[in-house]
Amino acid sequence: MKIVSWNINGIRATRAGLKEVLDSLDADIICLQETKVTRDLLDEPTAIVEGYNSYFSFCRVRSGYSGVATYCKSATTPWAAEEGLSGLLNNNKGPIGCYGNVEEFSEEELQSLDQEGRALLTQHKILNSAGKEEALTVINVYCPRADPEKPERKIYKLQFYRLLQTRAEAILRAGGHVIVLGDVNTSHRQIDHCDPTDLESFEDNPGRQWLNQFLGECPVSDPGATDPLILTNGDAPSGCFFDSFRYYHPTQTNAFTCWCTVTGARQTNYGTRIDYILGDKGLVQAEFLDSIILPDVEGSDHCPVKAILKCSPIPAIKCPPLCTKYLPEFAGRQQKLSQFLVKKDKGLTSEYGARDEQPGSQGSSEGTAEALVRKRPLEKVNGSTVKKKSKPVVGGTKGSLLGFFKPVALKATSTHGERSSSLVGPAEEKTDLVQQDSVPTKTKDSQQQATFWKSVLKGPPPPPNCKVHGEPCVLRTVKKPGPNCGRQFYVCARPEGHSSNPQARCNFFLWVTKN
How much is the pLDDT for 321? Predict the structure, then answer.
C-alpha cells in the first residue's frame, strides 16, 4: 500500500487535470493540505474524480483558506471518516471516536481549533504482512503557522499540536495503528533546515520541543539522553511515533520539502523539511518498506512525501457518509456510464436507416440535413406530387455554406506583375497613385511622433547591476504591512541560496528613490 502527503497550495490551481495529478502520484491514499477551497467554492470536477472517493474538511471562518482533503482509490475505500480533532463537529459521536482527555481545553478553544479545516481522519482495514486484519487510522493535518507578528497564532499552533497528540494517542491506545501525516509547519532538526539560525536556541523552539515529545526523542542538549524513545506520562503512549523518513534515512542531508517560490529558492534547494509521515512505532517497524521525498514533483511550494507499506488494504463495500459524493450538491451526479446510453425508439429512423438523436441534443434530427430534406414541403405538378425546389443561394453553390464566402475577383496584371491600365479606370489609377505617394509621408510622421513621445516619456531607468555578479537586478515591492509597505527596491536576480553557494543570490540591496 502506498500513501502520499502533499501541501498542494490550492487544489484549483493545478496545471493539469486533478485526475492526472492524482494518478501521477501513484498512491492508494493521497492526503492534500492547503486546498484553499471552501464548501461554496468546491466544484464537481474537484469533488468527484473517477476511480477515487474524496473527503474534505473546509475552513468555516474564511473563504478560500486552509482546508485538507483525502482521496482514496476504490480499492482503499475507508470504513469510517471524520472531520476535526475535537469531536465537536460530530457532537462527540463520530464514527472513529477516541477523543482522549481534553479537559485542558475550553469548549471555545476546541471549536476554534476545528473551525479552520485543518484535520481529517479516515479509518481503513488492512491485512498486515502476517495475514492479520488490523485497523489503520490516517490523520491528515495542516498544522498552523506561527506568525511572529501575531502572538495569538503561536498559542493557537501549540494548542493544535497538543490536541493532535491527544487524539492520536487516544486512537492508538484503543488498538490498531495510526499515521499522522501532512504539513506540520516545523522543521525538526538542524539537518532538516537549509540554514538554521541561532543554533544555541534552535532546540528551544516550542514546535520542535513538541515534536521531541511526540516522537519520544530527547533534546540533543540533554547529556543524559541515551535512548531516543522514552515513554512518559504513565500509561500514555507518548513517544510511540516515528518520523518515517528519518527512520530509513537518518543522515540524509539536503532533504527538503518546502521552498520559497518568490525568491526562487527551489533552484538552489534552499528549503526546509516540514512535511512528514509519522507512523506509530509498531507499524513503521513491521509494515513500512520505505519513506521518501519527491522533490521533482512541481506545482506547489511544497513537494510530496510518500510511504510504501507491505500491508494491503481491505476496502469497505460502501463509502462512509462524509464522502463528498453524498453532499446534496453532488448527490446523484456520479452515475455509471451505462445510464447515459439510454435505449432510443427504433421508430425514429431516417430514410437512410440511421437512428435519429434524442430531441434537444446537438445532433437532433431537426437540425440535420436529412431531416430538412424529409420535411421539405411538397407541391402538385401536372397531377403528380414532387418535392418543392429550394431557391438558389445568391453568390455560391446552391445549398452550400461556402457560397456565402465567394472570393473577390483579382484584377488582371501584366507580365511584369504590374496592374494593367487597360483593366483599371482612370479614377482608380489616380487613387492608387495618391495612396502610393502618401505611404512614405505617413511613415515619416509616425517616426517623428514616436521620437517625440520617447523624449517626453522616458520610462523607468535601467536596473543597476549587483556588486558581486555584475548582473542586472530585479525590482521588488514591499508587501509586508509597516512603514515601508509599497516601497520598491532592487536585489540580485539570482535565486536565494546559502551564502557559501556562488550561484546563489548575493546580498545586494538598493532602495528605489522617489526622484
Answer: 95
124 CB neighbour count, 10 Å cutoff: 28
Identity of the amino acid at 434: V
The amino acid that residue 59 corresponds to is C
Out of 31-40, 136-145, 167-176, 335-344, pick the least confident: 335-344
Closest CA to 494 of 342, 270, 333: 270
Biggest alpha carbon–alpha carbon distance for the chain: 118
Sequence-separated (6 or more) residues with CB below 8 Å from residue 297: 6, 24, 25, 303, 304
- Which runs of consecutive H residues, i.e. helices, occur in 189-266? 206-214, 244-248
Catalytic-labelled residue, pool 142, 156, 270, 276: 142
Distance (Å, whole) CA 456 – CA 256:
51
Residue 488 has pLDDT above 60, yes or no: yes
What cell does 207 get?
514546535
Catalytic residue among 183, 192, 301, 356: 183
**Residue 142 is among the residues annotated as catalytic for this protein:** yes
- Cell 477523543 found at: 99
User: Does the annotation mark 356 as catalytic?
Assistant: no
Residue 495 confidence class, pLDDT cut points 50, 70, 90: confident
Task: Find out whether 244 and 285 touch, Cβ atoms under 8 Å.
Answer: no
Amino acid identity, position 163: L
Please tell me whether residue 59 adopts helix, strand or coil conformation. Answer: coil
Distance CA 143, CA 214 (A): 14
Chain position carrying cell 456510464:
337
CB 216 within 8 A of CB 230: yes
| Residue 355 confidence (pLDDT) | 40
Taking the CB of residue 456, how many other CB atoms lie within 10 A of it? Answer: 6
Decide if 183 is catalytic.
yes
The secondary structure of 79-115 as a DSSP string is SEEEE-SSSGGGTT--SS------TTS-HHHHHHHTT
Q: Using an 8 Å Cβ cutoff, are 477 and 488 in contact? A: yes
Q: Which of 73, 27, 25, 77 is nearest to 50 (CA)?
A: 73
Catalytic residue among 124, 177, 188, 302: 302
Per-residue pLDDT reduced to its tens digit, 349-380: 433 344 443 333 334 333 444 444 444 455 55
